[in-house]
Amino acid sequence: MKQKLIFLTLIFIFATFVVSCDSDNPQPTAKEDIYVAGYKDNEHDIPVAKYWKNGVAINLTNGNNYAYATSITVVDNDVYVAGQEFNGNVYVAKYWKNGTEVNLTNGQQSSYARSIKVVNGDVYVAGDEFNGSNYVAKYWKNNVGVNLSNGLNSASASSIAVVNNDIYVAGNETNNVATVAKYWKNGNEVILSNNLQSPSYAVAESIFVVDNDVHIVGYNMENMKSTAKYWRNGTEINLSNAKIAFARHITISNNNIYIAGYESNNNKITATYWMNDTANRLSDGTKQTRLYSIAVIDNDIYAAGIEEDNNIFIAKYWKNGSEVKLTNGAHNAEITSIDVVKH
Fold first, then answer.
1. Is residue 191 part of a domain?
2. What's the pTM?
3. Alpha-carbon 141 to chain mean position
4. Sorting pLDDT into bands at 50, 70 and 90, what band is 28?
5. CATH value at residue 189
6. Structural domains counted in the chain
7. Residue 3 domain-assigned (yes or no)
8. What is the pLDDT of residues 296-321, one digit of tens each?
């Protein structure tokens, strides 16, 4: 239980193919496949890494160890899922291709895989690995690790994008005073935070690069307030005036910018996406809801996350505002990532 609480606090986070249906009302059309990744607790309260295709759950781990799926992408009918699994001592960063696991680290130190992309057959994964003193932000290309930070301070990599052979990674690094949002382009860091010298906690959560413009979302926590942030080529924009607001994922479609997150509304945390800076709430605020990922295909908007009911997390997604529950609330479950393939 301690390991699970640590992972959830960080926010967050033997391959088997066990297929089951957790959903009462999946509603994909015949011309689309909806993939979401996350986890669901089993009857022993151990989180099982899994993904759902059109509402049908596919287990990636066997439920003996704590495991979480954090990111999913589908390329040429191959399903890639990044995440981590506890080996009895530490978490091991890994990904699964069509259910077959690939370990990214040797299991000697804790490591986390937080984002996966596949470009021209190359597999890129962003995350971090403990070096004995601090976490080192890094990415792996075809299972070979590349350090982004020097290990003198703790750092984390949250999201990766690859465009024209340039590798962009968003994340954060902690100095003696503050946690600083930043990104790396081909290993060269670009600092996003305005406040470097007073106590604050800023994180770059998601990156999207198009037409040489670098779009990043995240948040900054300072003075008892969390502010959802959007940076375009380093210029910072606040997305919300709410006391609590987080931006977790960004995508761009037809020149429109879509950002998934959540913000406080009448003392409830409400699933929210921003389209070109305009907030759209996906729940009425009667229950706590959060968005962690968004995809837009042919003007259809798919947003994934959770609903909290009686202290249980229910995995769900919304298509154009209509919700689809993937679990029934018997056990905790979360959706961390969504991808949609249209035919």
1. yes
2. 0.91
3. 19
4. low
5. 2.120.10.30
6. 1
7. no
8. 999 999 999 999 998 999 999 999 99
Say if residues 141 and 157 touch (Cβ distance below 8 Å).
no
What are the tens digits of pLDDT across the range 281-293?
999 888 999 999 9
Compute the distance between CA of residue 242 and CA of residue 219 in angstroms, rounded to an integer.
Answer: 12
Torsion of CA 329, 332, 337, 339, to 10 degrees: -40
Average pLDDT over residues 169-191: 95
Give me the domain span that covers residue 54.
14-342
Return the closest-CA partner of residue 95 out of 74, 129, 72, 75: 72
